[in-house]
Design goal:
With 508 residues, the chain is of the alpha/beta class. The protein has 15 helices and 25 strands. The strands form 6 sheets. Strands 2-1-10-9-11-12-13-14-15 form a 9-stranded mixed sheet. Strands 4-3-5-6 form a 4-stranded parallel sheet, sandwiched between helices. Helix 2 crosses helix 3. The chain is globular. It starts with a helix and ends in an 11-residue tail after the last helix. The mean pLDDT is 96. The protein binds methylmalonyl-coenzyme A and adenosine monophosphate (AMP). Methylmalonyl-coenzyme A (MCA) binds next to helix 8 and strand 13.
Amino acid sequence: MTNHLFDAFRAGMPAPGRLLMETDDGRSISYGDMLERSGQYAHALTQTGVQPGDRVAVQVEKTPEALLLYLASLRAGAVFLPLNTAYTLPELDYFFRDAEPRLVVCDPEKVVDIQPLAASAGAVTLTLGRDGRGTLADRAALQPTDFVDVARRPDDLAAILYTSGTTGRSKGAMLSHENLASNARVLVERWRFGANDVLIHALPIFHTHGLFVATNVILMAGARMLFEQKFDPGRVISLFPRATALMGVPTFYVRLLQQDGLTKDAASHMRLFISGSAPLLAETHNAWRERTGHAILERYGMTETNMNTSNPYDGERRAGTVGFPLPGVTLRITDPEGGKPLAQGEIGMIEVKGPNVFAGYWRMPEKTKAEFRGDGFFITGDLGLIDADGYVHIVGRGKDLIISGGYNVYPKEIESEIDALDGVSESAVIGVAHPDFGEGVTAVVVRKPGSAISAADIAGAIAALLAKYKHPKQVIFVDELPRNTMGKVQKNVLREAYKDIYATGRAG
Ligand code: MCA
Ligand code: AMP
């Protein structure tokens, strides 16, 4: 038996001397180095007691070692559980209790706070720092470089990624080896990645986009990446002459367009610019084409499904659309209530089925059942239509979700924290058009009679509870929230009332 996903990477692997990544601090890691060092990390995991199927929860800075740890986890047969570095201790506590990892890997600077939480969930804690050092790295350095990969079948779990829930509780999306392998294979083919490609990798590696779409595609193609700690627009443009492709969220493209150095000449060595995770405005698409001569290729995915659709490599990349279903993916538009398929051109719920679709939510069989139709289609919560030429358009969301700079924020989670504060009667959290982040998280709050609670009080109270990117960029106080006859808060009315608060020049 074989290790399904890692074998797929091995199949495309070039000569050991070929480079896999170059970092912004001047380090180079070849495919041979990757095999040896991920082998050492895999030994370190098994030596720590990680058994096949155990969860390895990881909240660390973006380093090559963090990526080696992901590969080691696959090779050791474990289930990789990456966590956003912005998550606070109460957020981590929930993930640890829910996922019951065998091992937690964190930044040495945070170990004092994280270790007790991990211990109370039954996990051992090791560290991996910004410099790639720590107790796990030390342990790995002592190990042999040859590791016999643990056998994993296509439907064995490779990873769990938490995604916020509409009811406030995060759900762990279980992704199998085949979910990831099939999607990477299809993307390599559709986007024409080959061994000579060089990807500018400036995304975080704790979500689907930076971890699976970017990294798995590069590994599967035997290609190379310029591995950047953070997204710095000036620096990214300076890398264009050495690279062939960029993957980014719309905020990347908005910020790159603000750079004088973005010209046709600067982008002449690049062959492909890809955008996803949030809607790319047609305005951004058009401005990019004008400045660089390139049409950004927009695609659409979810944590639960990996990538579902993509604009074509050849042929028209249509602004404001997410292109066609990927090979193997079936996509249909249905009546959101009854699930009945709708005619072409009608707006409804986007549902998908295919080898990319996850195995369900970790230990939540009821929630899993509720989000699938009887015939196996996953209900995405996105509203869309298919136009006469077959392009999929996302026209809205059936779910109460805000996407800020490519990060998903569920209003309920923030409303619960704000509502719990003394002095607050109730709140509604909405997404409002924002020139940089696409949508800005905005809280509309009703004070209790006599209360003088301020925006600063609210910010201070939630600081230690919620990751920074979830914090409202503005808090607006009102006497009451608009409601419909059923008593439900009319968020559309609020979104309309405050639609200009972040208009260019006034972004806050
Ligand atoms: C940082 N801040 C944010 C965000 N990022 N606030 C709201 N939304 C954000 N996305 C906060 C910072 O804490 C800071 O607060 C202030 O906003 C300004 O920070 P700034 O320096 O501008 O931020 P940055 O460090 O430059 O980060 C912006 C970013 C980053 C580069 C756009 O958010 C990012 O890398 N986003 C990509 C997310 C991603 O990979 N998503 C893919 C999910 P203060 O100043 O008060 O300290 S996977 C997915 O969605 C699916 C499956 C798919 O289809 O891909
Ligand atoms: P996540 O929770 O990170 O898995 O985000 C998935 C959601 O991001 C989808 O359900 C969509 O609402 C949104 N999304 C991803 N890509 C796009 C895109 N190209 N256009 C519009 N929305 C997108």
